Amino acid sequence: MTKVYSNLPSENNDSLKKSIDELTNNQYVEPLEFNVGEYDATIGFFVKRGFDREPAEQLAYIILQQAKVDNINSQEVLQKLGNTNPAQLNEVVTMILNANRFRSSALGTRSKKTAKDSVSRNILG
Question: What is the residue range of 56's domain?
Answer without folding.
Answer: 50-99
